Fold this sequence. Notes:
The protein is α/β, with parallel strands linked by helices. It has 4 domains: 103 residues, 3-Layer(aba) Sandwich (Glutaredoxin), CATH 3.40.30; 216 residues, NADH-ubiquinone oxidoreductase 51kDa subunit (Rossmann fold), CATH 3.40.50.11540; 67 residues, Ubiquitin-like (UB roll) (Roll), CATH 3.10.20.600; 85 residues, Up-down Bundle (de novo design (two linked rop proteins)). Helix 9 packs parallel to helix 13, helix 10 runs antiparallel to helix 11 and helix 21 runs antiparallel to helix 22. Strands 6-12-11-15-13-14 form a 6-stranded mixed beta sheet. The chain has a 5-stranded mixed beta sheet with strand order 2-3-1-4-5, covered by helices on one side. A 4-stranded parallel beta sheet has the order 9-8-7-10, with helices on both faces. The chain starts with 14 loop residues before the first helix and ends in an 8-residue tail after the last helix. A hairpin with a 5-residue loop joins strand 2 and strand 3. The chain is globular, with a radius of gyration of 28 Å. Helices cover 41% and strands 12% of the residues.
Amino acid sequence: MNEPNPGGLSADLSEDEVTAIVARFDGDRTRLLDMVQAVQRRAGCIDAARAAMLAKALGMPVVAVEDMTSFYAFLDREPKGRFRIRLSRTPVSLMKGAELLARALVEATGAPLGGTSADGMFSLAWTSDIGMADQEPAALVNGRVYTSLTAADAVPLVQALRDSADLPLVDDAGPPLFADLAGAVLHLPQGRVGRSLVAAGPVLGGPQVLGEALQAALAREPEAVVEEISRAQLRGRGGAGFPTALKWKLCRRVAAPERHVVCNADEGEPGTFKDRVLLTEAPDLVFEGMTIAGYAVGARGGLLYLRAEYAYLWNDLQRCLAERRRSGLLGGRAGGMEGFDFDIRIQLGAGAYVCGEESALIESLEGKRGAPRDRPPFPTERGYLQQPTAVDNVETFACVSRILQHGAAAFARLGTAESTGTKLLSVSGDCERPGVYELPFGVTLHRLLDLVGAPETGFVQVGGPSGQCVAPKDFGRCIAYEDLSTGGSVMVFGPQRDVLTTALQFTEFFVEESCGWCTPCRVGTTLLQQGLEKILAGRGTLSDVASLEALAGLVGRTSRCGLGQTAPQPILSTLRSFPQAYEARLRPEPFLPRVPIEAALSEAANIRAEGRSRPAPGVKA
Length: 621
C-alpha cells in the first residue's frame, strides 16, 4: 500500500516497527520514498537513527537513504512542530497579502519563519507554489490546504489547531491528516478549497460515461489507437508540446519485457492549478486516458505521480480507482479485454519542483532523489525501471479520453492548424474572475483578459516563471504552441505592479528549486539573482545589464535540464518586453578619462627620471 506523506507527530519508533513498514512494501528498494514517508508519519521525522534502521532493513548503505531524504522539502531530518504550517510564497500570494498573514502567524504561534515555537507545537515556513494561485493566500497544515486566508484568520486558525492537538492520527491507510482536524478548523469563514472551474469546454464540460472511451479504444488494434491520436494531432499539455502519438510509437517499438505509462501530476509551476482541477472534477477522464495509453503502448502498469501539495486529494482518487476496479475497467481483463491486464498506482511526491521534469520524476518513482537524468536515452527507450515509459501530463490523458470518445476529427476541428483542441488555462492575479478556463487554442490575450475581468493590465506572465512576460502592446498574441506556449499558467499583473520585482521573485524561485547538480544552474541562478538585485537597488549600470544578459544566455545554454535552461527566462523576457524598466533604474557609467596610461603617467615618469639625475643633497656632481 502506498501512503501519503505525514506530518506533525514526534514519537519513538522501534527497529521492529521500521522493519514491519519495509515488509509492507515487500522490501522493494524502489518504494523507498513510500517507506520514508510511512516512517515520518509515525515518528515525525527521518533522523539519522531512523535512516539507519531503514538502511539495515533494506540491506543498503545508510548514505543512500540519507541522500534521498535530504533532497525533498517535505521530508524532515530532525523533529519539527506537531503542526507544520507552510505558506505559499509566489508573486500572486504576495500581492494578495501573504506577508501580512505570515507576520500574524508568527505572532499567533510564537514560531519564527523557518523555525519551531518554543513549546514544540508549531513549525512555520515559506514554501513554493502549492497550486492554489486562484485562492491565495494559501497554506498547508500537515498536508491539509487552507485557502483565501487573511491576517485576521491567524488567531482562530492557531487556536483551533491547539484545540485539536490531542486528537489521534488517522489509521495508516489514510491521508496525512489528523482524524478530526477538518471539524476543528474548517469553521473559519475562509479555508476550504473552492471550486476553480470557471469556463468548461469539450474536455471538462462534456458528459462522462464510465468506460465509453476505453471501449472505443479496445474495439481497435493498439496501432489504430495510436493512429487516432496522431490524426487528432494531440500535443503534450505539460508545456513542451511533444506529439503524443509519436511518443507512444517510440515507446511501442522498443523491444522490452515490460512497458509503463506515467501520469505527471507534479504541476509545480507557480500559477498553474489546472491539473488539480482535472483531478478534482474529472479524475475518471485522466485514469481512462492512462488505461487507453496502456493498451496502446502495451503496458501493464500505470503510475500517477501526485505532488505532495495535493495529498488532500488522496482519498478521492483512491476511491475513483477502486470504483474503476469494481467496474472491471482496471485490473485483470481491464475493460473486458482478454489478455489486457492494467492497473494504476498513485505515488505521492515529497516536495521538489524539479520532479516535474520527466526524468527526475522517474528517478523519484524509483525511490531516489529526483535529480534529472542525462539524455539520451529518453524515457521512451529507458524510463521507469530502465524500461520503455510513456510520460504524459494529466491534461493530455484527459484529451486522450475525449479523442477516443468523440473521434479525432472532432478534436482537430478545434484550435489552430498547429495547435489542435482546447487548452486549460489557470488564470490568477489581478483579475475579477480567477480560475480555470477551457478555451480553444488560438485565443488572444486580449480576449482572455476580457473573459477574466482584467480591463487594465500592466503585464501578463504566460507559462509561469519559465514562460514569457508579455507587455500590453503584445496582447494581440495568441495562446498556441506556435506563439505563446504554456503549460497552463497565466498570471495577470495590474499597472501598479513592478515588473522587475516580479522577475526577481521568479528568479528567487529558481534559486530555491535548483537541484544543485550542475554548476551553471546551481551557481548561475544565484548570480542572476544578485545581478538583478543590484539593478533593483539602483546600483547597476548599462554594463551590468549587458553582463546579466550574457550570464543568462550562458546559464540557459549550459544547464543540464529544463529547470536551468529556462531559469534565465524572467530576466531575458523582461529585457525584451520592458527594457525601459531596466533603464529607469540604471545609474550613469563611472567616468573613465580616455587617456592612454602611458600619457597619464608620463609626467610622473619624467619627474622620477629628473630626480635620479640630480645628485643627492651634500654630494658634488
